[in-house]
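Entry 14. Ran structure prediction on the chain below.
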Amino acid sequence: MENNYPVLPLCYLPPTSYFAVAVKHGGICLEAHENFTKQTLRNRCYIKTAQGIQMLSVPVIHHGKVPYQELEIDSQTNWSVLHWRAIQAAYGKAPYFQFYAPYFENFYSKPHHNLWAFNRELFLLCLKLVKLSVEITETSDWQKTIFSAPDYRNSLKNSYFPTEILQVVPYYQVFGVDFEKGLSIIDLLFNCGPDSKAILQKMIL
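Output, structure tokens:
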């Protein structure tokens, strides 16, 4: 595996821990040759609202085994409008929402057809906004078992990595008293802005 970077699936607005792993290793290798797996972070993420945790799920056209890179987004619904409205409602009063919102609003206003392309473009945008200089590579073929690099393709449990990989670092969140872990990177970005990178670095063991 190139550079021995940990191998991860490409996720929709990945959780903070996903980015902390990239910081820890200086890069990640995206699994580019897997079949799409339903009910995973490949097409869903979690945000924190006044009513609690909300899942956002990108609808896809899925019949049997489909290569992830070929999976089409179901455009019959106005899911992108609903996702953006949910993000606005959740983070409209967050300290840095107004600063970062235009980047995401522009993104959600564009048509998207392929889930892999959509997730990758959004992932790269988040890397840019958090100001992370990490290398992103992709697998060259499918391997059921990977021995040459950390294999985290199935390590995300409840949107968070096991505690032996990272530690929880609480930060300010708009709603609620108790800190919620496992949320999308946008929760950290909208709440902590330029401090996001430092918080990710503190998560590393």
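Residues 88 and 173 are 15 Å apart (CA to CA). Will compare against last week's run tomorrow.
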